[in-house]
Amino acid sequence: MGMKDQFQDKAERMQEQAKQRAQQGREHGREPGREPGREPGREPGRQDQQRGQQGRERMRDEAPERHQREEQDRFDQDYDV
User: Fold this and answer.
1) CA distance 58 to 31
2) Under 8 Å between Cβ of 25 and 31
3) Rg of the Cα atoms in the chain
4) What's the pTM?
5) How far is CA 71 from CA 20, 39, 50, 67, in A?
6) What's the confidence (pLDDT) of residue 10?
C-alpha cells in the first residue's frame, strides 16, 4: 500500500466521521457546525484578543520597573568582588 492510498483512506475515514457527527448532531437537536456551549453570534477569539491586549499593557507598565531592576543587578555585579 503506497502513501497515496494511505492518505486517501485517511481522508475517506475523516469524511465518514464528519458525516456521522453531523447526523448525531441533528439527532440531538444541535445545529451542524455549532459547538456546544458556544454563544450564538459571539465572535470567536474575542476574549483571547482582550486577554492578549491586557497582557501587553501589563508588560508595557512593568517594562520600566524591570529595566530598572536589571540595571541595578548589573551595577551590583560590577561592584561585587
Assistant:
1) 40
2) yes
3) 27
4) 0.34
5) 61, 48, 32, 6
6) 94
